[in-house]
Structures are given as C-alpha cells and as structure tokens.
Fold each of these.
Amino acid sequence: MNLTLDLIISHAHYWVSILLMMIGFFAVITQTNLVKKMVGLIIFQTSVLLLYISLGKINGAQAPIITDEHILYTNPLPHVLMLTAIVVGVSVLAVGLAIIVRIKESYGTIEEHDIVEQMDE
C-alpha cells in the first residue's frame, strides 16, 4: 500500500497532466459554445506542455551554464521546444478567436447547434 502511494506521488506530474488533458478534451467534445471549445483546446495544449517540461526536469541538475566544476546539467531542448509550442499555441488561439468573431458576425451566434440549424435552412 505504501509502495503504491509512493509510486503515485512520485509520478504526480503525469497525473496532473493527464487530468488537465482529460478536462480539456471533455470541454472540446461536449461544449457547444465555440469560445468554450477554444478554452478546452488551450487547456489540452497546456497539459501537453506541462508534461514535456516535467520530463525535461532532472532532480539535482542545474541550468546548462559552463563552469569549472563538473555538475549535472538539465537538458534545455524540451524547454526550448515547448517555448516554440507556446508561441504556436498563442497564434492558434488568436486565429481561432478571429474565426469565432467572423462566425458571430455572419450567423449572430457562437452556439454550434444554432449555426448548424441556420446552415440547414
């Protein structure tokens, strides 16, 4: 029992990432409001970013700065890649919100079922 609890606690970053991923995915597939779908998408993306950043962390390691001492370095590649992913995510959010604004101007609503009804008419 104690071993199981230790295993769960030591992998807490996986559980938090999976929980956030499921919350974001649930919001994307269940919400009919387009803005709420975008929020779910951003939560999903954030969970993926947290997962990769936590994988790049090494306990006891330091930032890769050259010194005379022999020390353990953290790999900066996951952090750099996630910085790029954050920029791409913000761009996707901006484009998505711009498309939602155009949909609102065209159909007068951002509710998915109302838009589908108007398209069928």
Amino acid sequence: MKKYKDIVLHGNEACALGALAAGMRFFAGYPITPSTEIAEFLSVELPKIGGTFIQMEDEISSMGAIIGASLAGVKSMTATSGPGFSLMQENLGFASMAEIPCVLVNVMRGGPSTGMPTRPSQGDVMQSRWGTHGPHPIIVLSPQSVLECYTLTIHAFNLAEKYRSPVIMLMDGLVGHMWENVQLPEKIEVIDRPEPSVPPDWYNPYDDLPGGEIVPLVPFGDGYRYHVTGMVHDKSGFPTLVHEEVEQCLDKLIYKIKNNLHDIIRIEEYMLEDADICIVAHGSVARSAREAVNIARSEGLKVGLLRPITLWPFPRFHLENISKRVKLFVVPEMNYGQVYGEVLKSCPKRAVRVTRVDGELITPAQIMEKIEGTAL
C-alpha cells in the first residue's frame, strides 16, 4: 500500500485510510453516492494487506456481514449514504444489543428517501441517534475536515473496541468529497480487542463487572462457547425475561456509555471565553461558522463557536456551562433544526437557527445576517 503522509487527499479516501490505520481488515458495503469512494478505495487497497472486501447485495446484508466479521475477531466497517443508512438500522440495533464493535460510516446526502444523491445534507443527525428502536445509547462522530476524516475514523474504531459498541462516523457530503492538503500523523493510538482474563468455562460475555469494566469479546473459534442474540439476554448471552436480568442487560448498555462521557465526548471551542453569542455547528457548517466568528469579531461583536465533534452522546453539560456566560445561541445546520432542538433542551438561554435544505452549504454571510438581525 502507498505511504500517505503529506498529500492532497479526498475526504472519503482519508476515511478509508484511517480505517486501514486503525487495523480494519474487513469491509462489506454497497456503493451509494456520496460514500462510494470509500468502497472503491478499499476494494483496491484492502486486499493488498490481506484484508477482505465484499460488495454485498444491499445495505442490510452489508451491516450483517460486518457484525459477523467482528464476532470472528476482525475489525470491520461499512459505509453508506441516505436510504442505505435507513436499511442498516435494524442490524445497527442488533450490534448495540449484542455489544459487537464495528464502525458504520454515513456520508449524508439530501433526503428523505433517495432525495438528492449528489448534494450534501445534515439530515441524519436524529436518525443516527434514534433510528433503531429500544433504549440504547450510540456514539456518533462528526468530522469537519479531511484530516479529521482520517483521525476520527481511527478514534471511532478505538471507541468501538473500548466500549464494545457500534460507532457511527457521520460525515456530510461536503466533507466526504472535499480535497485538502493534509499531513497525516506519524504516531497514532490504536486500541485492539483485549484478551479474556478467565478460562472458557468461566466466561460470560455480558457479565456486569464491578466498576463498570467491560468484558472482552472473544472471537468465535477461539475455544470460548457463548450465545449471541438480539433478544434481551442474561450474562451468558441467552434470552431472558427475568426482570432483574432484563434490567441488568439494558442498564449495562446505557451506563457503559453514560459513565464514561468525559472520555467519549470531544468538543472544540473557538473564541468563547468572552463571547455574548455562541454559534453551535458541526461538520462542514462549522467551517462557515468559524469564519462568521472571525467576521463578527472584526466588527466588534463578541461571538464564539462550539463545535460538537462527538454529536452523540450530545455535549449537554458543555452547553449548560457555556449558557452561564453567553446571552444567545445561534445554530446553523443543513436541515430544519435537529441540533437546534438539542440546544433548546440543554439551555434555558435564547436560541435561534439558520437552516438550509437545498443541498448548498450555509455561508458565513447567512450566519452573520442572523446574528446582526437578532437583538440581544
């Protein structure tokens, strides 16, 4: 495989490179715009290093295939867009319930349905959190640059292995199709699946250990016999309706994420120290928001930016802290206000939104128009 250290890279290719750097060796997917370059790149590069690339018949089977590969001990990933993401939801819920590490990349496009295949959107923020049924958390990351397509994909695999959970890379089509000159880091942290600390006869893959420690998932074929199901299960993995075991199963799903928010949630703050107005933006829109902050500051307006890098779990506590200092939140996004709704739930302060759903990026001028037209 070629060495990529200082080079002009495409966002989707950077995502694929990040997956390879993280140790991903199994990809199953169905090509769909604007995510297709991820599959195209991996179909060439993955076999060169002994990995497996499979073009599946659809997105349902793609998600099922990476779950199976992960159960066999291989770091696995799929990538999709729009309606393909919808088709993956049931198996995404299965991976959450069965606590199977894997990474799902969704390069968002305009919707609903087949929508606008070649135009970007941020319309899947809520679907990434609530697309499946039942009470379970999910980890969702949102890159804003080609470099972050690389680094956050590595981070996604690390979180997946650390917390035995599917992790979603939620990229908008602008980020996925962006070309930038990047310097890929020489040193990266890669978390691999730990070995079990108990013999096969003592192994319970869903045990609730003291201190919230997560039981390592032993690959099938390694001599550890256990059951995997999407049903609510006991500590051995077999279905149960015993109410104490049901509560233990579901509580563990919730609290393995909730008790580690400090480790999982990443944000970026820009000029927020003395700000009266806080812009909340993610993905490509955060780049426009950053420029809007620069314009506002040049005009003497105290404006700053909060960028949620981890979209889910939502950085509610950070917003609550910032709300003690600012007078107004401005939320630009390429949908009708999905993050805006979360800001309203998190903060008692005023919030206004800037929305755009025509497949074009929100500009700094649009954000400034809202700021200048809203009295503090």
Amino acid sequence: MTVLAPAPPAAPASSPRWRGVRTGAWAVVLVVALAVSIVVSVTLGPAELSADDVWGTILAHLGLGESALSPLRDGIVWELRMPRVLAAAAVGAGLALCGAIMQAVLRNPLADPYLLGLSSGASFGAVTVIVLGFTVALPIAAFAGALAALVATLALAGAVGRITSSRTILAGIAVSAVLGALTSLVIFWSATGDSYREILSWLLGSLAGVTWPTAVIALVAIAVIGLPLLASAGALDAFAFGDRAAASLGIAVGRTRWVLLGATALLTGCLVAVSGSIGFIGLVVPHAVRLLVGARHRALLPLSLLTGAIFLVWADTLARTLFDPRELPVGVVTALIGAPLFAVLLLRSRRIS
C-alpha cells in the first residue's frame, strides 16, 4: 500500500540544542496564534463585537472588572460564542493528538481515530443513547462505543494473523463501515422529528449546541487525558524503531501500546460526545507538523495539539459564518480543507522520496 510516509528525523547537522530552540519558537508562535484565534473568532458573527469587548467580558466574568456590554451582548460573548470556541479548540487539540499517537503506536501514517473506527464507534454509542432518551449518559456511551470499536478493529486484524499496520487500517475501515451501517439502521427505525436533526448533527460533526457544561467536558478531557499523554513522547520515539528495539530500550511494548490506545479511545469518546464525528484533523495535522519540526514526538505531540486547536477554531468559525444565517456542519468544512491538504502533503512526500 502506498502511503504518506512520516517525515524522516531531523538532519544530523541539526544539534539537539538547535532543535529545542526551533521547537520552543514554534510553540510560542502557535500559543500566541491560538490566543488571537480564540478572541478574533468570538468577535465574528451577526452581532458586531470588538476584541476589547471580548477581553472586557472575559475579565468581568473572572471578577476582574465590569463588562461594558449590554446584558444581551454580554450573553452572546459569554454564553454562546466563548464556550463554543473553547470547545472547538479542545476538540481539535485532542483529535490531532490522538492521530499523532495512533500513527506512532501502530507505525502507520494513515492511522487516526476516524479511519480506525473510533469516531464511528463513539457516534454509534452517542446516537443510541440519544434515540433511547438517555442523553445524560452520552459521554459514557461515546467512550464505550470508541473502546468497543478499537477492540473490534484489533481483534479483526489479529484474527487473520500477526497484527500489522496495513491489516489494522483495513480492519478499521471494515469496523467503521459496519458501525456506520448500524448507526443508519438505528436512525431508520427510531429517529423522528427533533431527534433526527440532532442525530444528523452528530454524524456530520457540529459544535452548534455547545454550552458551558459540554465545553467543560472537552476541556477537562484534554487536561486529564490529553496533557498526560504528552509524557509518552519517549516511548513513541522508541516504537518508531520497531517492537524489538522498543523492548531493548526498556519499554513494556504490549502494556504501553494498550494503555496508549485505551487512552486515545477514552479521549476520542469524550470529544465525540461534545462535537460529533469530525474527520481529517487526526490524519492531516500531525503530517503538517512533521514538515515543520520533524518526527521527534517531544516536538510533534505538543505542536500537533496546538495546531489542531487553531485548525478547528477557524473551521468552526467558517462553518457558522460563511453562509450566515445558515450553518454548515463543521465536519463538512474540515473535509473540504483537509482532503486537498492531505493530497498536497502526499504529493510533497512523493517528491521528497
């Protein structure tokens, strides 16, 4: 299978100190870009707002002054746009991080939560509880669906012999197709009226219904699951040289692989519970970041996290403003941007090789 190969490690002439400086510089640039993106995104929409309005409202709700806006405009900033933008940042960060980790653990540059069936499994779990009316259990159902899809993918890949990256991808495609069909069956038999519209938003990806409680789910998931995963960079570098090399470096290969895959399934389930199924972020963002800083995971993981957050903040901003007052599903926007970008990266990789 011809695939987009991971970028090679940095050139020998690049010293560790220089790589650290370059990574630090990119991290500062991306942190500033993320902060600016969040503020500017909140200002965009039918109600005209300035950056000063947004900062004033944020500080007022943090107890550092009073908001100069009317209650209506204050509510637009604090109750509508701010939780939605923060949730977009958290979901984009998490999906990009999951993609980078899965590509390293499975040693396959095509691995991501969407392609391996995790997003489909989480969507199936979410749709099922929506139809049954138990939306309070939606995050748990999404995680259970993502974990079940991961187990099914690895079991199917292992059923035909040794688990390889190509078999895992093919098994993921099969599991994703089955779960997609089951989700369609549930919708066909059960969904009516408003539930049909709500389910459709899950399948296409949408942040339109985000409130502070749902935004907190995504933010806590990133803080509790995503940030600790950054510490796995050393183990992921070892995986790049194969299981035997990783074991010789003191890595408990089997246990570490299952812990990392289980954590990505849990994180994916929490994020899909907030945003629905959004593709291409976990696939494209890590490849784009590798072109900037190479394949070392100490740089790749945090920069993918920041880049994914910026990407989804602007994708969601386009989704809600491009055809205002109509709103596009954000999954449509990420596909329209991500698919051509992935093709460009693929052609660039071919020229390099």
Amino acid sequence: MGILVGKNTRLVVQGITGREGSSHAEQMLEYGTNIVAGVTPGRGGQKFKDTVPVYDTVAEAVEKGGANTSIIFVPPPFAGDAMVEAAAAGIELVICITEGVPVIDTVRAVRYINALGGKTRLIGPNCPGVMTPGESRVGIMPSSIFREGNVGVVSRSGTLTYEVVDLITKAGMGVSTCTGVGGDPVIGTTFVDVLELLAEDPKTEKVLLIGEIGGTDEETAAAYIQAKFKKPIFGFISGRSAPPGKRMGHAGAIISGGKGTPEAKIAAFQAAGVTVSDTLAEMVERAKALG
C-alpha cells in the first residue's frame, strides 16, 4: 500500500451531482475506488449511478456511509465552507480539487482544520488529488498512464504531474503514490508533509519532486531533506523563464519581492543533495539510472 489513500479509503464526493463531480466520480468508480456516498444539499435520497447514496450533508455520509475521506468538486464560492464541513464531520482526509477558491476562504478553512489538532488533513485546493496505483484514485489524474511501482511523486503542478508519470511508465518504472499538493498561495498539505509520509513508506524507494517558482515551500522542503530525508530524491523547478512580478499559471507561481526565484530553489535543492534536472525527461532518466 502507499500513503494517504488506498484500500481502506471510504470516499464521499462533495458535489457529486455537478458536471465535474459526476464525471470524475464515475471514473473513480470504474478504477475501483470505494465511493460510499455523495453529497449535494437538496439532493438527499437520490442515488448516483443507481449505487452510491446521495446525502444532504457530509455528517450524514459519515454517519450512514462510514466515509473517512472526502473529495471536493463544489464551485469556488462554496469550496471553503465545504472543506470546513468535511472536517467538522470528522473526515480524516479532505482533498479539494476546486480551482479559484478565494484565498481568504482557504485561510479560514486551514485555520479551522489546524485547530482540530491533526484530526483532519487537507490537500489542496486547486490540486489533481492523490493516486495510489492498483488501490485507489481520489482525484482527476488519468488512470491509464499509471502502473504500480516504487517511485513516489509529489508536485505543485497537475499537468506536469501527468507528464512525469507518463514518462515514468514509459521508462519501465511505476509509482507508489502520486500526490498533487496544489498551486495556490495557501494550501493544506505541503511538500514536507508528503515527504515525511514517503520517508516512512516501505513501498517508496525514490522520490520525484516537481516544484515551481513562487513561495518558499521548495526551500523549506530542501531544509527538511538535508536534515532528515534519506531516500534518493530528484527535483525539477518549473517556470524558470518567468519574469519577476508576472504570474505564470498557478496563483502561487509568482516571483515577488525577490523571493521565490528558480535560482534560489535550485540552489537550496542542490545544497540539500537533491539531484536537480533541467527537464522532466532528464529527471526520469536519472531516477531510472539509479536502479
């Protein structure tokens, strides 16, 4: 088994009757993910695909369906409340896919979840979710590009995550668990949080980390790696050509006040012993060469 999601995951899909929620819920069901409930206020009593009960609240999904993990597809203005509702209902792992959540709403949700003292972990928002191949898909990552293996992947970018996983598979390797932490300025789970889990995961023998410009999460991760992380780790920083002050893609990918530059992140990784590559293909080749 991998980290975060697996055969013990009992998933509730918040927003299961919406366009995105229903589409990805159907794909997760096809993959074999154990979806025990859906939630859409006002739709309680219905069934999704004639099998998954829909409730009005997450609390009902926990009480009647035994849900322990939530994935959120609700529109941005309601996503902050959805995160809080899931945590308040006792959900252990909340994964928010929604893009464009107001930062102040995320701040309030993170503050609320942190105050619970570790009872709930938040991943995202604005993330592709978590995938443990062969066990559970909780997110929007394309299942067809994954195969089981010993490479842990953690990334701020959804698109680059898909690209590197595809390269890993084509190189004859496989993934233990792939985690997209999200590209917003404020997120729940950080690089360090995921690395701590991968460090203890016996299935993970090497790690690929995809960072990007903006913020200081990569520098913080580098300090942790240098001090405590013992497994081989390969890094890549995207957005190297972005000019200061211009946001590239993600809301959190912006160099401002001289902080968040690719040069600083690459230097921090190299000082920590991370093998940094110029391209994703090069990163995968180096990981494969390790054996």
